[in-house]
Specification:
single chain, 237 residues, alpha+beta, Structural Genomics Hypothetical 15.5 Kd Protein In mrcA-pckA Intergenic Region, Chain A, Alpha-Beta Plaits, nine-stranded mixed beta sheet, four-stranded antiparallel beta sheet, 6 helices, 17 strands, elongated
Length: 237
């Protein structure tokens, strides 16, 4: 027996959070009975319907790594018809992004219909390391380095930077190229981190999740994950 929202998410229909919303908002039935409470458990023999349509089991799971371009949403659809990350993947399967990158942030993002893996990667306890390259205005000074080593308070919670390296300094343009690795997933966390030190992020790109990298993928290009990469991601739990 498994929780209803988990079964819906693992089928690839939607994320677990969206599955919970469907249940609460009276869209889900089990064996003809309306279920609107979270925690309800079902077996493989139960018939689950969403808005009258039977939930299809996950027949095959797909995993993609995309180099997200700028001005693309990390979502499945958009009411303003802006481009979304799923638009770049050629598949008839309903996939969705694991986590998100900001509209103007580029780089590595994973898309899949495997709800179980998505939950592993997004759960705080998994401590999945993500590496970014940030171009900031100004030169990162020694005083700010010391503040970073001690941890930066954001929303009364300390943000610990796991790794930080100055890749390049342009004294003429007064900019720095900084490599940052964190294991947190708070919204706009890299931009807010630098803002707390009075630096603006001019460009931001994620180059790594765990040991997965973009490789030779150009902006807008994608590839399927290998079996060994999928196994590696599962082992991050």
């Amino acid at each position: 027996m498994e929780r209803l929202q988990k079964v819906i998410a693992n089928s690839g229909y939607t994320s677990r959070r969206k599955a919970e919303e469907l249940i609460i908002n009276n869209h889900v039935q089990v064996n003809g009975e309306l279920i609107n409470t979270l925690g309800y458990k079902v077996s493989q023999e139960d018939l689950i319907t969403i808005d009258g349509e039977p939930l299809k089991p996950a027949n095959s799971q797909e995993y993609y790594l995309l180099n997200k371009p700028r001005q693309v949403l990390s979502s499945v659809t958009d009411d303003k018809n802006r481009p979304c990350v799923v638009d770049f993947i050629k598949t008839n399967t309903r996939i969705y992004p694991v986590g998100r990158l900001d509209y103007d942030t580029t780089g590595l993002i994973i898309l899949t219909n495997d709800g179980k893996l998505a939950n592993i990667l997004m759960h705080p306890k998994s401590r999945v390391y993500k590496t970014y390259i940030a171009k900031i205005n100004g030169i990162l000074n020694e005083q700010d380095f010391q503040k970073i080593r001690q941890g930066i308070l954001i929303d009364n919670r300390k943000l610990i930077i796991d790794y930080l390296k100055v890749r390049k300094i342009d004294k003429i343009k007064n900019t720095s190229l900084i490599e940052v690795t964190i294991h947190e997933g708070r919204n706009h966390i890299i931009r807010r981190f630098f803002a707390s030190l009075h630096y603006d992020v001019l460009k931001l790109s994620r180059i790594k999740i765990g040991n997965l990298t973009l490789g030779n993928l150009k902006s807008g290009e994608y590839r399927e994950l290998t079996k060994s990469e999928i196994t590696y991601l599962y082992n991050l739990k």
